[in-house]
Q: What sequence folds into this?
């Protein structure tokens, strides 16, 4: 089958063997997939990954032992876990010591005609949800992860740093809880999408009042961390969503003096994400800026790195 | 009066005017004071402080409007606050926007014959407590701050990085809650003090099992942060106690992938600290390695920077 394969820092479409589902796994024919900034970081060398890229997808179950799932349109959680290690037993399966992660760690991903995932990872997609919307389930779930990790109430003042693919989703999800929210970005057309949703925005070069109780760093850049510390009030919470290769030079005295809480945040729950997409409380259609066939996946990745695009999709 | 005065990176004993208490403040005759690593960082340029150094002390109230306090032996909280700014109103007085901090920020400190503090900052010291013990109240309170910020239970596995002045106190305070605790340090004689208290220790060069649920960074060095991340389990908590001048190069992807919680921790509650010292549940006598008169305060500071010392005291 055709797939976008990453090897030695180069991602090229090529023929690879169709994956074979193991016991408990389903073979899924991919319908559409979304390019995430993590895919771009993987090409830059983050995680030393080699294999088929892609972890945001919607597909149809092609082969599987479970009669109910066969033929259903599904999305899938990306962490494949052992249920036996110490972290699985501590009810943190996403942190399984022996996990594989779709298109990120030890498991071929979704920029392909087919992929395999454990049946337990799959969620059936409501018929009302278009493929181009369903494909957002994974990143919307990542935004919902924040609500599992910290309390956010109407009294909080929230700043989301970053108007990109993930920042947009985080701003929409958190705005449901915190009316006092502002999303900070660099590009007028991206901020306009949020304004159309009734979300307050600010340009990154505008002065912004400090004293936020919660700041979410989703800029994908190193500068976001220092900016977040400036904006937070003492005892405020900084949620880190950016995963980038390399290390950052950070002023460590300020978080101690101000007793800041910093929390890393990764994969989240699919159910509330699917619900929010189905209800339209998270609205993603205008975020899709370009769509390519799988054969042009390498070009799609390049386009996704451009400032003119937001979500770039592949249709298989 | 005589005082150890920091100016332009140089700390020298010299004559300075005796401080005048403002309304609501007490004039305190200092009996003894302790040298803290923060004093050494202030000399290195952290905080750009100029004035009398010192914030750990015990003294006698010499002048004050409150009849009850006059003549009493007291210790004092170091943050002097306005009660009116937004952070005071949010019940975070330690983070008052207009605060002065004894010997650290805008207020002359305790390495002097006299100091002033608001009456509300003072706590009367039980008669049973020696001066050399009472002087530890402030750093013991800083250790108790951790218990205000995070839940620690008998099921936690706790690592304290650092066997120095603060690490010793933190290990003793947290061990009351978490029997599964190990303190990691570099010097056998310091670790022996903890072993004598029944606290498990490890040398920094020993391999240590990873998977701690809580790590407290109290090494006073930049290397502690990376080591802490290695030892923590996913979704674990890293408490930062070290305040050092400058910035650190940190790998930021790991805290995100492992969803680590990092929390800065500063000043803490005096009441439980005084109680623990009075009950002997925190035992500090063997930590006092050298004592000097105020006239030799500059030398005392130099000695406090040496690896052969732990708590260096001044007696006025």
A:
């Amino acid at each position: 089958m055709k797939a976008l394969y990453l090897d030695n820092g180069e991602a090229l479409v090529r023929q690879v063997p169709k994956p074979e589902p193991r016991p408990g796994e389903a073979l899924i024919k991919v319908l559409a997939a979304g390019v995430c900034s993590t895919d771009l970081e993987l090409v830059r060398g983050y995680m030393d990954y080699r294999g088929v890229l892609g972890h945001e997808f919607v597909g149809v179950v092609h082969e599987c032992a479970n009669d109910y799932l066969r033929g259903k349109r599904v999305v899938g959680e990306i962490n494949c876990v052992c249920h036996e290690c110490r972290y699985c037993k501590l009810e943190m399966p996403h942190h399984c010591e022996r996990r594989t992660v779709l298109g990120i760690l030890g498991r071929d991903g979704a920029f392909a005609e087919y992929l395999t995932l454990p049946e337990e990872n799959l969620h059936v997609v409501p018929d009302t949800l278009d493929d181009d919307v369903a494909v957002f389930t994974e990143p919307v779930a990542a935004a919902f992860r924040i609500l599992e990790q910290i309390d956010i109430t109407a009294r909080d003042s929230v700043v989301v740093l970053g108007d990109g693919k993930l920042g947009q989703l985080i701003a929409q999800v958190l705005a449901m809880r915190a009316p006092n929210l502002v999303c900070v970005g660099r590009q007028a057309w991206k901020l306009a999408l949020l304004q159309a949703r009734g979300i307050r925005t600010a340009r990154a070069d505008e002065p912004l009042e400090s004293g936020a109780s919660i700041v979410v760093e989703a800029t994908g850049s190193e500068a976001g961390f220092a900016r977040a510390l400036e904006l937070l009030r003492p005892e405020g919470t900084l949620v880190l969503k950016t995963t980038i290769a390399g290390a950052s030079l950070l002023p460590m005295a300020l978080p101690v003096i101000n007793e800041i809480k910093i929390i890393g945040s990764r994969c989240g729950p699919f159910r509330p994400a699917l619900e929010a997409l189905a209800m339209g409380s998270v609205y993603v259609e205008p975020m899709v800026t370009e769509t390519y066939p799988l054969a042009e996946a390498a070009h799609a990745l390049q386009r996704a790195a451009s400032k003119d695009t937001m979500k770039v999709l592949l249709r298989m």
